[in-house]
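Customer escalation, tier 2.

The customer says the design service returned an amino acid string that "doesn't look like it belongs to this structure." They asked us to rerun it and document both sides in this ticket. The original structure tokens are below, unchanged.
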């Protein structure tokens, strides 16, 4: 393939780790990859990071640094037969004194059997293995494979890193980008840590023959913005929903609005957000603000009826309401305690005073005897025991001194005092 037909990202790919921009945590002094190069000995490695952060570049540079044959493979297009074929070629390579670095992109796409196929070759050193993944290895790779590999965690490139890369591209092509100063920074920011997106955009901008430098607004119109990272089902998806949930729990409403916006602008299903926010209303607010649950259901219903963009405001209003509401997990803790007690106490019968007695025989057995109809009492409270006769009274629900639960707490304390007086008389 002629070099001029290759993408700019491939033409500019560094061949030495010293030329790679960013990732100082593994490439810098005492970093995992840096130590491998200095020791001139590579270990099996999983590179985990977002798209465009340099996973393939690092693997290629490592192979070159120790003079190993680089064999790339994609888990999307390859299978067990391809692995075995590559290993056979690597064994033949060893016989003539050459070592092989097998690089598998999107390694998380391999199923368990395919991942297990690699193990014996890693054990006998047929290849040095390097895998790249955008998914959390802890959840998506076999323990057997993980135990044989180091994990290199890569971060999205910073705006400063991308600005350096932009300047390097201009020097490489000996051309100046048609952007004013603010647009240059804007391009780096909208690349969202992805060097590949940046270089592809640069390649387009330099071939489009713009008559004058673009402003930030003109740049937005000229190119398709990169959607914020969120894969809707993978690790980043759970990171973002965790950020929404924890921000609401911390009553950091502005942060919760930001993380919600991040999810929505990346194409998240609004129904998933409404489900999680409704759970938050029950679990983290509860009776501290009984309206929270109704607010969640109402906002959800409004969105279902109106859709976007009108319904988006209902989502925003819900996030603000939940973020500013008093928080309490008393109902959640009450549920856990009651379920635990129910499991521990087995099949105790209810006390006879609260059992119905529809037949004469049941009446003679004492069913319903002594039952007091609360609304007919002077205080509206009878103090009668509703726990099993052989079970001491339990305290599962302990409301807090916040929001509406403050009133519930007062009511329960008043009833406790009445119950104590009634029991004293008995």
């Amino acid at each position: 393939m002629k070099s001029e037909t290759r993408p700019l990202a491939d033409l500019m790919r560094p061949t030495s780790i010293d030329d790679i921009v960013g990732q100082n945590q593994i490439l810098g002094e005492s970093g995992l990859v840096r130590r491998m190069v200095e020791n001139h000995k590579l270990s099996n490695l999983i590179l985990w990071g977002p798209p465009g952060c340099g996973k393939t570049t690092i693997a290629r540079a490592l192979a070159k640094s120790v003079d190993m044959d680089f064999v790339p493979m994609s888990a999307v297009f390859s299978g067990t037969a391809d692995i075995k074929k590559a290993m056979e070629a690597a064994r033949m390579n060893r016989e003539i004194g050459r070592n092989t670095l097998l690089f598998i992109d999107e390694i998380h796409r391999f199923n368990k059997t395919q991942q297990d196929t690699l193990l014996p070759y890693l054990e006998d050193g047929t290849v040095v293995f390097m895998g790249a993944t955008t998914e959390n290895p802890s959840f998506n790779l076999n323990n057997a494979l993980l135990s044989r590999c180091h994990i290199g965690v890569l971060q999205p490139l910073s705006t400063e890193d991308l600005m350096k890369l932009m300047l390097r591209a201009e020097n490489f092509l000996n051309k100046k980008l048609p952007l004013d100063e603010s647009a240059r920074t804007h391009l780096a920011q909208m690349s969202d840590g992805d060097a590949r997106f940046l270089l592809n955009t640069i390649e387009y901008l330099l071939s489009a023959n713009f008559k004058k430098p673009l402003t930030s607004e003109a740049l937005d119109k000229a190119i398709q913005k990169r959607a914020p990272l969120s894969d809707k089902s993978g690790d980043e998806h759970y990171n973002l929903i965790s950020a929404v949930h924890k921000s609401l729990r911390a009553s950091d409403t502005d942060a919760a609005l930001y993380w919600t916006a991040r999810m929505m602008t990346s194409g998240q299903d609004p129904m998933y957000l409404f489900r999680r926010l409704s759970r938050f209303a029950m679990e983290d607010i509860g009776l501290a603000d009984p309206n929270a649950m109704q607010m969640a259901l109402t906002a959800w219903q409004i969105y279902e009826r109106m859709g976007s963009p009108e319904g988006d405001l209902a989502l925003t209003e819900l996030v603000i309401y939940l973020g500013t509401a008093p928080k309490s997990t008393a109902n959640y803790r009450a549920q856990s305690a009651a379920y635990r007690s129910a499991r521990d106490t087995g099949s105790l019968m209810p006390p006879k005073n609260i059992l119905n007695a529809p037949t004469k025989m049941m009446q003679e057995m004492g069913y319903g005897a002594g039952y007091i109809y609360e609304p007919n009492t002077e205080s509206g409270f009878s103090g009668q025991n509703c726990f099993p006769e052989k079970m001491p009274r339990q305290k599962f629900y302990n409301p807090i001194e916040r929001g509406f639960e403050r009133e519930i707490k007062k009511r329960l304390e008043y009833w406790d005092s009445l119950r104590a007086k009634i029991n004293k008389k008995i």
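Tier 2 assessment: The sequence is consistent with the input. The two ends are 97 Å apart (CA to CA). The chain has a mean pLDDT of 87. Sent an explanation to the customer and offered a walkthrough call.
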